[in-house]
C-alpha cells in the first residue's frame, strides 16, 4: 500500500480504490498477495492454525471468513459455498477457453509479425488461465471432464461478451483495452477471495493479464494515430465494444441474484454496479488519451459523486445473449464441440499408450515375483 | 497456487478422471531459481509422465518462472533432468512481449 | 560459403510458414494443454522467422524489413520448402510435419551454429535449442499415436506416408549454401527412423520426391495461405500497426 502521496505524480484525479494510482492494478494484485501472506502468518486468532478441535465446523468456517483467513480444500465448507464457487470458477474457466476464439480469429491475419507474436502469446495465455481455473475448481471435488461436459451441453455459461464477433483488427485492440480491462476490474478483487486456490489462481492470472490490456491499448493508440481508415476502424470498434463491456459486470445490483450471499462469504467483494462505475471512471481518461470517443452522449463528470454519470448497458440485450441469442453463441459452441470431438481419438490414443506402457513396465516384475 | 495435492479429486490417481479418456491429474512443482526449493504451482492433465512434464513446462514456465520442474502422480515423482535445462527453458528468454513493461503506455494513461 | 539473401529467405520462410500453419490450430487442439504447446512452438518458429527475415532484409540492402518481406512478396518469391505449406490435416498430419521439419531444422541449425557468418551462427544457435524441444514434442506424439489405438495407428501411418515424399526436397544439394543440406540427410534419418520404429510405423519407401519451393515453385496451397496472412497488411499500404 503506497498511500496517496503518489497522487501528485499524476495529472489525473480519478478515484482510486485501494492503493495509489501509480501502482495501478498490478499494485492492487500485489497488495492482495501481501494480504494473503500476512493472513497466513497471522493464523486464526484464538486457535492454533488448522486445529478445528471440537469447534462446530460451521462456526469455525465463519470464524475463518471473518478473520480474513482463506478456506482451503480440505476444510469443512457449506454445500452452497462449494456449489457457488464451482459455478463461478467453472464459468470463469469456460470464459477463458471460449474467449480464445474471437481473438484467435485474427492470428492468421495479424498485420505485422510483431502483432502476430503478441496475439499468439495472449491467446495462449488464455488457454493457460483456463487451465489454472479448472485446476482450482477441481480442488472442490469436481473433475475437469465433468465441467467440460457441462459447458458443451450448454448447462454452464461463459461470459456473454465472447458472443460478439471480431469484425476488424481494431476489435483485437478493443478487446484488450475494454474487455480485458473490465475483466481485470472484476478479477482484481477476486485475488482476495476467501477460497485459497481461487485467490491464488487469480493472483497469477491478474499478473499475467496486465500485458493483455496494455497490448490492446497500444493497438488502439497506434490505430487512432494512424491513417484515417485506421482511425475509423478504431472508433468503430470502441463503438461496438463499449456497451457489451459495461454489461460484463452483470445485471444491476437490484436484479443480481447471487450477490448478497457471495459478498457475505467474501467470494465477491464489490457489487456489480460498484465495479461497473470503477471501470467507467478508469476508461474515460484513457479514451481521452487515445483520442477516441466513448459512444455515450450522457457521459459526464459528476462532481458530487466524484464519478462519471453514464448510460447503463441494455440489460435486455445482455439477457438475450446469455440465453443463447447473441450473434456468435452458436458458432462459439459449435467450434468448441468440434475441437473436442475431433480430438477424442488423440486423447484416447495417448491414454491407450500410457496403459500399454504401464502394463509393459509391471509385466517383468510380476514374472520375477 | 499451492494446494494440497492429496485433497484433489483424482489427485494423481486416474480413478475419478477416467470417465472420458483417462488422462490423470498431475501436480506440478517448480524450482523458481537456484537455491530455492521446488514449490507447488498447480496441476494439469496428461496421459503420462513425459507429456505431463512437457505440458508443465509450457503451462507454468512461460515467463521463465522456473529452472526445474517435478510432476507428481500419486506417489511417483518425475523430475526434468538437469541436462535438459538448456533447451527446456531457454526459449522463454526472448519473449519480452509477455511482460507488461514491453508496451509503451502514452504519458498520462493510468490503470493499465 | 557466403550467406546470400536467398539462403536466409529459405530458412526464414520455412519458419514463417510453419508458424502460420501452427497458428491455425489455436482453439482447435485435441486438448487444452496441447493448445498451449502448439502455440509455444508457433511462437518459437515465428521468433526465428523474424530474426532471419530481418537479417535477409538488411543483407539485401533495399530497405525491406521483416514485414515487407513477409507481407509484400507473392508466392513465387517465397523460398520455403513445400512441406511447411501443406495443410494441417488432422493432428497426426500436423505431428508428422512437425517431426520431419524439426529433425531437419535441428541438423541444419546445429551445423549453422558453427558457420563463419557470426550473425547467422547466433540465430541458429538460439533456434537449435527451440527446435530440439519441437522435435521432442513431435516424437512423443508420433510414438503415442503410432502405438496407441488401431485408429490412431492408421491415422499416423497415413500421415507419415503423406508427408514423407516432401522430406526429400529438404536435402537437395546446394553447394553455395552456408551448409549444404545434402550432407544432412543421413543425420535426419538417424533421428526419424528410430522414432518411426518405436511408434510401430513403417518407414515409407523413397520414391516420389516433389520439390520446387526453394525456386519459388510451390503447391497450390501457398497462395491461399498468403492471401489470408497478407490481406489486412496489404489493404492499408504504408500504415503502421
Question: What would your notes on this structure say?
Answer:
The complex is a heterotrimer of chains A (369), B (112) and C (241). Chain A has 369 residues and is mainly α. Chain A has helices spanning 24-42, 57-66, 79-98, 100-104, 113-138, 144-152, 169-187, 196-224, 228-247, 259-264, 272-290, 315-325, 329-342, 344-368, and strands at residues 300-302, 307-309. Chain A has a two-stranded antiparallel ribbon with strand order 1-2. In chain A, a hairpin with a 4-residue loop joins strand 1 (300-302) and strand 2 (307-309). In chain A, helix 3 runs antiparallel to helix 5 (113-138) and helix 5 runs antiparallel to helix 8 (196-224). The termini of chain A are far apart. The relative contact order of chain A is 0.10. In chain B, a hairpin with a 5-residue loop joins strand 3 (68-72) and strand 4. Chain B has 112 residues and is an alpha+beta fold. Chain C has 241 residues and is mainly α. Chain C is globular and about 55 Å long. Chains in contact: A-B, A-C, B-C. Chains A and B meet through helix 1, helix 5, helix 6, helix 8 and helix 11 of A and strand 2 of B.
